[in-house]
């Protein structure tokens, strides 16, 4: 084989196996988005989040998650956390608000958001974060799996770490509407059709057991719903007659057919817009 041919083959192999991704300058932002094809960490200058004090009706989950995150940011032992339950009740908002609170206390914790579809690349991401001089909160929003979904196997690299172990400077938080990360009807279907029903879903159901913290979020009542809106009004300086505010807020949730923190915020955005306030 000629030297020219050898060079062409070497160049082709190099293109097929690109050099490992270099870590970005983590000092330039508090938050990053993980992308694949190609691998990259995109710095986010302004994170969309609300103040921790405005999250009403989730006091216990707020206190537990904040304390767990503080311990991790200070270099102590802490658990991975699964925030599960009702839609629109502040699961992802709480994670982002806790992260902001930690940084406000002078602890340089970085948050990296990972999409569920990119879980197969998590080993590469962990390798990038392992030697960085920061502590990282790896966050996956709206995490769930179907019966034929194999992405959950990649998640074990974060929760268990495999032979290398999870990096000491990385913790993993996920939100889900499902406690066991897969629909109940799929769990029952696999149990009823399997040769060994006990083993059919054990691997997937036990995935949620690998989270040290389970924090449940439940639908809010009307008083909590109204308290959320009153808190938003106070924080953004929107002055409305209390009786008018109550009547309009109740009418809004009735037309939506649901009551949650998300519905409360959507009503407030409409209210603020009608009063000329930008939020």
Strand content: 5-15%
Name the CATH homologous superfamily of the largest domain.
P-loop containing nucleotide triphosphate hydrolases
- Report the sheet with the most strands, covering strand number, pairing sense and barrel closure: 7 strands, mixed
Number of helices: 11
Q: What is the total number of structural domains?
A: 2
How many angstroms separate the termini?
68 Å
Low-confidence runs (pLDDT<50, min 5 residues)? none
The helix-and-strand class reads alpha/beta
Any idea of the CATH class of the largest domain?
Answer: Alpha Beta
- Major beta sheet, strand line-up: 2-1-4-5-6-3-7
CATH topology label of the largest domain: Rossmann fold
Question: Would you mind describing this structure in some detail?
Answer:
By secondary structure, this protein is an alpha/beta fold. It folds into two domains: 26-217, Rossmann fold; 222-274. 45% of the residues lie in helices and 14% in strands. The chain has eleven helices and seven strands. It has helices at 3-16, 59-73, 91-104, 122-130, 152-159, 184-193, 197-200, 202-209, 222-236, 242-256, 261-274, and strands at residues 31-35, 40-44, 81-85, 109-113, 135-140, 170-176, 213-217. It has a seven-stranded mixed beta sheet. Helix 5 (152-159) links the parallel strand 5 and strand 6. The longest helix has 15 residues, at 59-73. The protein starts with a helix and ends in a 5-residue tail after the last helix.
């Amino acid at each position: 084989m000629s030297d020219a041919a050898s060079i062409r083959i070497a160049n082709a192999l190099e293109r097929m196996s690109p050099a490992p991704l270099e870590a970005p300058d983590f000092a330039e932002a508090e938050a990053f988005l993980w992308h694949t094809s190609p691998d990259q960490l995109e710095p986010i200058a302004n994170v969309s989040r609300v103040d921790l004090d405005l999250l009403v009706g989730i006091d216990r989950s707020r206190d537990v998650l904040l304390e767990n995150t503080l311990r991790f940011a200070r270099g102590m032992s802490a658990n991975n956390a699964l925030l599960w339950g009702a839609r629109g009740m502040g699961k992802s908002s709480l994670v982002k608000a806790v992260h902001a609170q930690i940084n406000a206390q002078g602890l340089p914790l970085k948050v990296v958001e990972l999409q569920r579809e990119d879980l197969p690349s998590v080993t590469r991401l962990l390798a990038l974060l392992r030697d960085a001089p920061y502590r990282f909160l790896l966050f996956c929003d709206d995490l769930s799996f179907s019966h034929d979904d194999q992405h959950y196997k990649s998640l074990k690299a974060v929760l268990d770490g495999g032979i290398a172990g999870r990096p000491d400077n990385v913790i993993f938080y996920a939100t889900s509407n499902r406690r066991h990360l897969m629909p109940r009807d799929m769990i029952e279907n696999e149990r009823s059709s399997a040769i060994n029903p006990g083993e059919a879903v054990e691997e997937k159901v036990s995935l949620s057991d690998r989270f040290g913290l389970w924090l449940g979020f439940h639908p809010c009542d009307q008083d909590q719903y109204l308290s959320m809106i009153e808190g938003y009004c106070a924080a953004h300086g929107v002055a409305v007659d209390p009786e008018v505010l109550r009547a309009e807020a109740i009418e809004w949730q009735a037309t939506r057919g649901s009551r949650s923190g998300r519905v409360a915020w959507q009503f407030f955005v409409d209210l603020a817009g009608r009063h000329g306030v930008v939020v």
